[in-house]
Each structure stands twice: as C-alpha cells, then as structure tokens.
Design brief:
The structure holds two protein chains of two kinds. Chain A is α/β, with parallel strands linked by helices. In chain A, about 40% of the residues lie in helices and about 25% in strands. By secondary structure, chain B is of the alpha/beta class. In chain B, strands 3, 4, 5, 6, 7, 8, 9, 10, 11, 12, 13 and 14 form a twelve-stranded mixed beta sheet that branches. In chain B, strands 19-18-17-20 form a four-stranded mixed beta sheet. In chain B, strands 1-2 form a two-stranded antiparallel ribbon. The chains are: A alpha/beta, B alpha/beta.
Chain lengths: ~240, ~425
C-alpha cells in the first residue's frame, strides 16, 4: 500500500532523514520505533506532504506522493493523526468530525458522511455522548479518540498515528491501542509511531527501528521485541565492546 | 507476507530495506566493514538499490578468519546465544555468532527447505550431520523441530553401522546428511544384509559438499528414497540458504534473507543472467554476524523462469564446482596449500606429494603419496618413517577431519600425472 524508498528530508539546512526505505502492506499494522530525535515525526510529516522530501520516492497505491500538497495526500486516503491530537477546541465534537469529512462534503456525499459518523460513534460511544460538547473540554483520552475519529471520517485506507499515547494514562493508552487493533480488523491499514515500543510492538505485525535518521532494524514485531539493539537505540547507546554487559 | 511466494517487486522492496538496515548496522558496529567501506569510499547511505551493491567491497573467507574470534560480531556477546565455527585459513578457523533472532530465522528457513522436500510433523527425521562446532547438525535439528517432526540427533562421526541400526529401529522416514555419508550408509546396509525395503526411508536431504546427479541416482536406488539437494554455507547461516522443492529443478534461494549475486571469478563483475559464475551472498537479516558480499567460491548459475511450485524466489542449479582449488574429501574441505602446511608441520621439510582420492563402495578413499627421496637424508630408519606416518595421519585428521592412508614413494613414481607435486588427483566417479 505504502512504499517509501531512499527518502531524504529535513528542515532548512538540517538533514534529518538520510535515506529511509520502508513499506506498509494492505491490512498491516506497522510501527516505527526509536528515541526522541530519530526522525520518526519527520518521516510521517514527509509522507503526509507537510514536508517536501529532498530525494527518494513515496508511493501510495502506486501513485508518487512526492511533492503533493498535504490536503491532496489526505484526499487520496492517507490520513495523519498528528501528535498532541490537534483538535479544534472551540468547536463541538461533531463539528470536529465533520471537518475530517471535508472531502466528502465537497463531493456532496452526505450518505457517506453519515455512515462514517455512525461508525465513529460505534467505535467511540463516548464521543456520541459528548457530540454537542466543545472539544476543548474533553479529557486527553477522549481528545485522542476524537482525533482518530476525525481521520476516519475521510474513509482513509491508511492512517498514520504520531505518538497517540503521549500524555495519556496507561489505561487510556490501552483502550486506544485496542481500538487500533479493531480498526485493522475492519480493514484499515495503520502506520504507528510510538515511543512506547513494547505496547506498539504488541499490536503491530512488523516494525522498523530508527536511529539518527536511518533505519537500523527491520523485522516482525516478535523479532524486534527480542532484540536488544532496540533498547540500545532508545538509550542512544552504541555498541562498543564485545564484552559489554 | 510470505517470503517464498511474494511478488518480485515486493521482494525487491524488502531486500532493499533489509540491505540498508544491515549496512547501517554493519557499518556502525563492525570495524572491518567501516574500514572496508571507507577504503572503497562508499557510504552505506549511497546504496539506494540492489544494483548499488556492486559498489561495496567483497568479503572473503580470509577476511573472516583474520578477525577470529569475535572481530566480525555486530552485537556484544551477551546478545549472542550460539557460537559456531567454520574452517577458515590454515591457521585460524572462523567463529560465527548467532542471536536469538538469528537462530529463529535459521530454524524457519531450514524448516522451509525440509517442508519443500515434503517433510511434515509425521516424519521421523534422522540427522546425520555432525553436531558440534559445525552448523549443520543443530541447524537442521532446529528446522526439523520447527516443523514438529520427530528428530533423531544421530550426528555423524559414529560407526556407520550404528547409523543403520538407528535408522531401522527408530523407523526413520527422512535422512538428512552429507551425500558421501549417505553413500557410506548404503554400503554398510549392504554389508549388514539389510535391504532398503526393511527401512521406512522416503526422503533424503543431502548437502554440505558438492555432489552429482550420478550420486543422486545411486542414493535413490540404494536407499529407496527421493533425494533432494540443499546448499549450506556455514559462514552465512549453515543450512537454510537454498534447497530444492518437490519439483527438483534447481535450488530455491531464500532471497528474503540473502541477496544473491553471481560474479565472474576473474573480473568480479556480474555474469550475464544464466551464465555460470561464483555465488556471492549478502545476509540481510543476520544480527550477530552480518556478512556483506561474501565470496563463497562455489560455482553455479541462475535458472530462468518461474518454478511450477509457485515459489517466486530465484533458483540456482546444482553447485558445479569451486573457483578455488578446494576439494571435498569425506565431506571435508581441503585446500592443497593448507595440506602443504600440514605436511611441513609434521615433517619439517617440503617433500613432493600428491593426494589421490578415489571412491570405493561410496566411501572416499584418500591416499597421500609422499616422495621419499626428498626426505631421505633424515629417513634412514624405518622407525622415523613410521613416526612421520603417524604424525601426518594425526595432523590430517586434526586439521581437516579426514582419514588418509600415507604411502611413501620413490621420486618419479608419484601418481599425480600432469598435476605435478602438491596436486589432488580426483579419481572419483
């Protein structure tokens, strides 16, 4: 579904991604793990069209997304759920959801919008209960659900989540991850960025471990859970001696 | 995602991703590769496609031996769960480390090959590869266990008749060993008066040394089984690299874990597709012991077209020989240069010699002929001669694992033909 090859990207003079290749197959949950500053968010922003790649290709269902505007990428069914939720606080829950459906509303696909809204409310009953409430008054977990729900309104084929567990209580994180697993069952493909590597690998099929702008490990989720290099990558500790403890 | 049947384009993407991660790790963690890439002036980031692999330097057996024991390990020892060894140079072997994931991949890949030969959980698999430092025994063992077969770790190196007894009593249905060892088993069966119909064998998976279609026919006739060819390289993983499927038209390479190149051994440039050349492999999932562009010295060619079995992986034909002058005797690799050194160590002189290898009743017979006149200044006593004989025999066994007969001959009566001194004369059919 998504195929990234030799992607390079960064900010100004700063080169963050130094040739990243990865793929996400239809129906998979793939996670990218790595320490702060490894380039995970830069990667998602580059795929989503917020940042322009300097080199490489980003194929989404065969179309090269490289150089495409962020809204055009979203309309093609590749949705970013940004870190820190980024919901519109002064608007109601329902209005927030409708923003996510802007593409369909423009096409006057009202039936589709209604069906999507019903599905989101089924997935997150709490959002239904609070649909007239201002989004800014929701708890952190509910805001995250709203953020995911908003992305789903566009009926995406791939959703990309940037650290959905940030700032949430462990129990809430658990329920968010349960929903992700549920979403995959219903056919949504998921690319998930997480600092909470263990939790992410538990629901993922495969994973990539990033370190300073390159991918240093790739494998099944089980392989990565087993790999001590993953921990080293987090601690930013390099392997120096054969005898190290 | 199934590595054996994925579309070629998907496989290519997977290979590129895995190659890049391997290069990143090798460059960070293995001084040898860091220096080699520096010298070649290539940054791992510059490898953007499989074709770019050509820009990287080769790794040879000598390189691996030179970094004995742990110089090539890409992870600290605490992450290594197994250490195997392979023969390296004359002085030093090669130590190969595997992490837990490496072992798991090796088990899965070996299981693929066993399954490709039709082995299931209903089989009783007798593994007659040597267990120990070599990777063959445990490698196949774990693969067969992965399938759920009943595994008999018979190992080799024991009395061949004992092997036959185990096979008969335990009702082994599959035999996994070196082809020459299987031939020896067939001979033992005949001597013991055991007809293959009294056994339950149905499948044989043979490898670890070059062998021939003639030997395959012979083994199938003598053991009443279907014989499959498998290709192993200890330095890369052991078993699990390439093997035949049930259609037996070439060995499927496990390309999701190994990238194969075939190069002209003289120019080191890629050969035209379908032409014979030296097999060069790059491991793309090994964590403990990544190997970049390893020159195997084995010759084979790529087979074109898809296989009827549905696997999409590339196929190579049976190993056609070597690009160095190594010979396999009794399943052990011997380089004439190494044999020369063994002789020198034992005799403190450099006599003319040749090694005559023949096969009798499926068993390799090795006759090491040493020219007497070259050493006669010290060989004035029968006792000295016998000491040389026992010394050389012991050292041959120690260095190569072979049992050879030592014959002292007059100058001019070496049976080496046009090979001259220091040659191996292979008379095997």
């Amino acid at each position: 579904m998504l195929r990234v090859r030799n992607c390079e990207s960064g900010y100004g003079k700063l080169r963050v991604l130094k040739g990243v290749s990865l793929h996400v197959g239809a129906g998979e949950i793939v996670t990218i793990i790595g320490a702060n500053g490894a380039g995970k968010t830069t990667l998602l922003h580059t795929i989503a069209g917020i940042l322009r790649p300097r080199a490489g290709e980003i194929l989404f269902n065969g179309t090269n997304l490289r150089g495409m505007q962020a809204h055009a990428v979203a309309l093609r069914g590749c949705s970013l759920i940004p870190e820190g939720r980024r919901i519109f606080g002064p608007m109601t829950v329902e209005e927030n959801l409708l923003i996510g459906a802007h593409g369909r509303l423009r096409r006057r696909d009202f039936a589709g919008v209604n069906a999507a809204r019903t599905r989101v409310y089924e997935l997150f009953p709490v959002l239904h209960d609070r649909r007239q409430q201002l989004a800014g008054t929701l708890s952190g977990g509910e805001q995250q659900m709203l953020s995911i729900g908003r992305a789903l309104m566009g009926d995406p084929r791939l959703i990309m989540l940037d650290e959905p567990s940030t700032g949430l209580a462990p129990l809430v994180v658990k329920s968010i991850f349960t929903v992700l697993a549920q979403l995959r069952k219903s056919g949504t493909t998921i690319l998930l960025i997480e600092q909470n590597a263990k939790a992410a690998l538990r629901i993922a099929d495969r994973g990539y471990c990033m370190e300073t702008g390159v991918i240093v490990l790739e494998g099944s989720a089980g392989d990565l859970l087993n790999n001590n290099d993953v921990q080293r990558a987090y601690l930013g500790k390099e392997y120096r001696s054969i005898d190290e403890r | 995602m199934n590595g054996e049947t994925m579309a070629r384009e998907e496989l290519r993407q997977l290979q590129i991703e895995r190659l890049q991660t391997t290069l990143n790790r090798a460059c960070r963690n293995v001084a040898f590769y860091r220096q080699a890439f520096d010298t070649a002036g290539v940054d791992p980031g510059a490898i953007r496609d499989l074709g770019d692999l050509r820009r990287l330097p080769f790794t040879t057996r000598e390189d691996l031996a030179a970094s004995y024991p742990y110089g090539m390990f890409a992870v600290p020892l605490k992450d290594i769960v197994r250490v195997n060894a392979a023969s390296g140079s004359f002085e030093r072997p090669i130590a190969i480390g595997s992490t837990r994931n490496d072992i798991r991949h090796s088990s899965q890949l070996t299981a693929r090959q066993l399954a490709g030969a039709g082995i299931t959980e209903h089989d009783v698999v007798q593994i007659a590869f040597r267990y120990g430092l070599a990777s063959g025994g445990l490698g196949f063992h774990y693969g067969a266990e992965e399938i759920g077969a009943s595994v008999i770790p018979a190992s080799s190196g024991r009395n061949v008749r004992e092997q036959v007894v185990i096979m008969r009593d335990y009702k082994a249905t599959a035999l996994v060993t070196m082809p020459t060892h299987a031939a020896a088993i067939a001979v033992a069966m005949e001597e013991m008066g055991i007809h293959p119909d009294r056994l339950n064998l149905r499948v044989g998976l043979f490898g670890g040394e070059p062998w021939s279609e003639t030997l395959r026919d012979h083994l199938e006739r003598c053991l009443h089984l279907v014989a499959y060819d498998t290709y192993t390289v200890a330095e890369l993983m052991g078993p699990g690299i390439a093997a035949e499927c049930s259609f037996r038209n070439g060995l499927h390479v496990n390309e999701d874990h190994f990238i194969l190149e075939i190069v002209d051994p003289a120019t080191l440039e890629p050969v035209a597709p379908g032409d014979e050349g030296e097999l060069v492999f790059t491991t793309v999932t090994r964590e403990g012991f990544p190997v970049i562009r390893y020159r195997t010295r084995d010759r084979a060619r790529l087979l074109e077209g898809p296989c009827a079995c549905g696997r999409t992986t590339a196929r190579i034909n049976r190993i056609a020989g070597r690009t160095d002058d190594a010979v396999f005797v009794q399943g052990h690799r011997i380089l004439p240069g190494d044999l020369q050194e063994v002789l020198f160590a034992a005799m403190k002189s450099r006599p003319a010699w040749c090694l005559v290898v023949d096969r009798e009743g499926g068993i390799d017979d090795a006759d090491l002929q040493i020219v007497l006149s070259d050493v006669e200044s010290v060989v004035d006593e029968w006792k000295t001669l016998e000491k040389f004989r026992s010394d050389v025999t012991a050292r041959l066994a120690e260095a190569f694992g072979i049992a050879a007969r030592i014959t002292f001959v007059e100058a001019g009566s070496l049976m080496c033909g046009k090979g001259g001194s220091g040659a191996v004369v292979d008379k095997r059919p």
